[in-house]
UniProtKB/TrEMBL annotation:
Organism: marine sediment metagenome
GO biological process: rRNA base methylation
A GO CC term attached to the entry: cytoplasm
Name of this chain's protein: 16S rRNA (Cytosine(1402)-N(4))-methyltransferase
Keyword Transferase: yes
A GO molecular-function descriptor: rRNA (cytosine-N4-)-methyltransferase activity
The UniProt record lists the keyword Transferase: yes
One Pfam short name: Methyltransf_5
InterPro entries: DUF2794, RsmH, SAM-dep_MeTrfase_MraW_recog, SAM-dependent_MTases_sf
Family membership: Belongs to the methyltransferase superfamily. RsmH family.
Length: 237
């Protein structure tokens, strides 16, 4: 989606841009290249490892980028503290990064055995292990239905409760598959572990006000199966 990011952000040389989910730095790198010369970028991510990964990748633009470990819900506060204003574009890429799936220690992938975790940040205390092994059956069913749109959510929740304790990703995948669901129980989707619904609500409230006043325009994709939410907010000239 790099081309779409650059097109809808309308990146211009010398502009100031914020990548609120910097991840591995791919989008940030493309923005910095398009904004040269003179462009500046503020990169935000809740995951300390992502910030360090991005720092290494963006080293050629070290003088033009500021990376901060923070939650995107604190965008306004981070910008004020860094005196990073005015802005010409803000990017939110809300989804699961491939590097998280590739790291077994994070417990996101169901392809390799790992302890259930699924936290985007070490500062988060709630893990997938706690959800799977302590939530009531109805809570699990509601979570799987709401964030995974899984028709067999109640059957899957019943199977999970009956198979406790479940310690690893592959154990959970096997239970879900046997219960008639997919290999991915969708516990790390929008809510649950990945990020709090309140955080997204706060950003969307800001977004709604800005669009209503004509300050921002948007481009968004929502794919149901992957549960990816991708939004670009562009400040109108």
């Amino acid at each position: 989606m790099v081309d779409e990011v650059l097109r809808y952000l309308a990146v211009q040389p010398g502009g100031r841009y914020v990548d609120c989910t910097v991840g591995g730095g791919g989008h940030s790198l493309a923005i910095l290249e398009a904004a040269a010369p003179g462009g500046l970028l503020l990169g935000i991510d809740a995951d300390a490892r992502a910030v360090e990964t991005a720092r290494a990748r963006l080293q050629p633009f070290a003088d033009s980028v500021l990376l901060v470990q923070a939650n995107f819900r604190d965008l306004a506060a981070v910008c004020r503290k860094a005196d990073f204003v005015p802005l010409h574009g803000v990017l939110f890429d809300l989804g699961l990064s491939s590097y998280l799936l590739a790291d077994p220690e994070r417990g996101f992938s169901f392809q390799v055995e790992a302890r259930l975790d699924m936290r985007f940040s070490e500062h988060q205390t709630l893990t997938a292990y706690e959800i799977v092994n302590s939530y009531a059956e109805r809570e699990l069913a509601d979570l799987i239905w709401r964030f995974g749109e899984e028709q067999a959510s109640r059957r899957i929740a019943r199977a999970i409760v009956g198979a406790r304790p479940i310690a690893t990703t592959t154990e959970l995948a096997a239970v879900v598959s046997k219960a008639g669901g997919g290999a991915d129980p969708n516990l790390n989707r929008r809510g649950g572990i990945s990020f709090d619904r309140q955080e997204l609500s706060q950003i969307l409230n800001v977004y709604g006000r800005k669009v209503a006043t004509g300050e921002w325009r948007d481009y968004a994709i929502d794919t149901l199966r992957e549960k990816a939410v991708f939004s670009v907010f562009r400040r109108a000239s």
